[in-house]
Write a sequence for this structure.
């Protein structure tokens, strides 16, 4: 049963903690470690404050055949109420280093601290990714992106522990299979990210603005550049308005961000989907963009048009869609993982019934599948 690892495994965790200087905690509620604030206990958690400790601990647990869950900031995780049937390894090496054209961060550095440091130093490139919670090391895992920029376009190299060979080495971004909210690191135990490095522009200007809403808010045309600090402020303002910047006092931010990825519909399936949309909504303009292998539709638009408005299902529900953004599933304070799972399944089935499009969850689920 999840969360109830045998005592022998906890003893292995104790030995490994002592050997590599990690901090051991037992019976830790995952609800305290995840931004959705749900999830049962982890029987054992090892917090590692150096890259050597992360690598040593994961290698030792892998060799002992102990299941491992790598944890960063817990902002892309939905953990079951029964807890975690693995030893949690919390990546907490958090150094940040900047030089003329490179932003380097250890995996456990807070991502927004990395962006803030780069912006304060006048280094351009990362500013559109301001306000995204979680750790720097998790950003390549799902090729984090926002406001027209993905980390994959800025990554210089990534330091990995290869969990098959036990080797630590730098890899090029081209070797990571980076795609839309995915990589070879997502949903696998292939490797642990120990550090990341990004190329940066040293002229104090942002990356070219590629997202219309952001460009408009800055009075700019798409493709133009603006001072990095100005762009960071604008991104944080836009994100806050959508409940996409963590705020303890705002339940709309007790989420995992966007819960579903934007679906990419294959060319042969698209006419049927558009016909279903027209038959339900009439002759509406459907937001769509080119995607890898088809046409990308907006998950938030489909959810709303399928009848799931902001705040669905209503004020008394413990798990609701955000009142600011239909793509975020939120915990209003007393939700369980089961409540969130129920809401996710409800929304997914409703969209599929209405338009024949199956939404895929973006967060990593532990202990169940959506
Ligand atoms: C309010 C809010 C807004 C968000 N907005 C965005 C957004 O705009 N764009 C976006 O892309 N995402 C967004 N997210 C999702 C999330 O913040 C990112 O996916 C983030 O990178 C997750 O980092 P984390 O450290 O919290 O990862 P965790 O949740 O701790 O882990 C997520 C997955 O990555 C794995 N992992 C974590 N660290 C490592 C590592 N060092 N090596 C290997 N695997 C690792 C874990 O095992 C797990 O499978 C948002 C989330 C929230 C709550």
């Amino acid at each position: 049963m999840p969360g109830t690892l045998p005592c022998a495994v906890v003893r292995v965790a104790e030995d490994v903690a002592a050997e590599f200087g990690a901090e051991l905690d037992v019976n830790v509620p995952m609800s305290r470690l995840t931004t959705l604030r749900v999830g049962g206990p982890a029987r054992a958690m090892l917090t590692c404050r150096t890259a050597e400790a992360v690598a040593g601990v994961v290698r030792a647990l892998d060799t002992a055949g102990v299941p491992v869950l790598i944890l960063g900031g817990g902002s892309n995780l939905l953990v079951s109420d029964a807890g975690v049937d693995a030893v949690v390894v919390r990546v907490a090496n958090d150094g940040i280093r900047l030089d003329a054209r490179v932003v380097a961060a250890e995996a456990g550095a807070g991502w927004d601290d990395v962006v803030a440091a780069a912006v304060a130093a006048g280094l351009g490139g990362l500013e559109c990714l301001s306000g995204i919670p979680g750790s720097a090391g998790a950003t390549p895992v799902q090729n984090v992106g926002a406001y027209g920029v993905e980390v994959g376009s800025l990554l210089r190299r990534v330091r990995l522990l290869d969990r098959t060979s036990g080797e630590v080495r730098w890899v090029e971004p081209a070797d990571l299979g980076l795609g839309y909210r995915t990589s070879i690191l997502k949903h696998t135990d292939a490797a642990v990210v120990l550090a990341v490095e990004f190329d940066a522009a040293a002229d104090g200007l942002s990356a070219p603005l590629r997202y219309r809403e952001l460009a408009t808010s800055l009075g700019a045309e798409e493709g133009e550049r603006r001072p990095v600090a100005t762009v960071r402020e604008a991104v944080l303002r836009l994100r806050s308005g959508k409940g996409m910047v963590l705020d303890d006092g705002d339940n709309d931010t007790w989420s995992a961000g966007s819960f579903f990825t934007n679906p990419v519909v294959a060319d042969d399936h698209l006419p049927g989907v558009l016909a279903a949309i027209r038959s339900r909504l009439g002759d509406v303009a459907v937001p769509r963009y080119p995607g890898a292998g088809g046409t990308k539709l907006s998950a938030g638009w489909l959810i709303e048009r399928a009848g799931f408005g902001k705040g669905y299902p209503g004020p008394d529900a413990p798990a609701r869609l955000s009142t600011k953004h239909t793509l975020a599933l939120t915990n209003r304070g007393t939700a369980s993982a089961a409540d969130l799972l129920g809401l996710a399944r409800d929304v997914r089935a409703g969209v599929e019934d209405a338009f024949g499009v199956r939404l895929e969850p973006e967060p990593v689920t532990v202990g169940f599948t959506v």
